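Quarterly update from the structural biology core.
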Amino acid sequence: MNLKGKKYLLLDLDGVCYGKHNNYSLERVFGQVSKKMTKFISERLKLEEDKAKELQKNYFYKYNTSLRGLMIHDGISPDEFLSYVHNIDLSFMKEDKVMRTELEKLNMQKFIFTNGSAEHA
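Predicted structure, tokenized:
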């Protein structure tokens, strides 16, 4: 990819800044988040876990995020939800020195985006 003359680099935190290319499986992060979502939905809406998982998936496919469905249909606060589901174990994450070095070589502004909370980022 030719980046010559480009001023900005936009990166997606979830999948680019950590992912399979640097031996951090997305499943380690998203697997934990998904389980926390199911637990949150189950406890908050008083549903059995299998029903909570089904609702989580349905909202995801209908609204592109489970949270959006929970906000629309169940009055769930995004701050409460994100605080709960992003409280996960990230101790396995290690600095990717190769990526850092390559990014530092680029003479452009870099921006990282996420649909997660600031704490998650």
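The CA atoms of residues 34 and 85 lie 8 Å apart.
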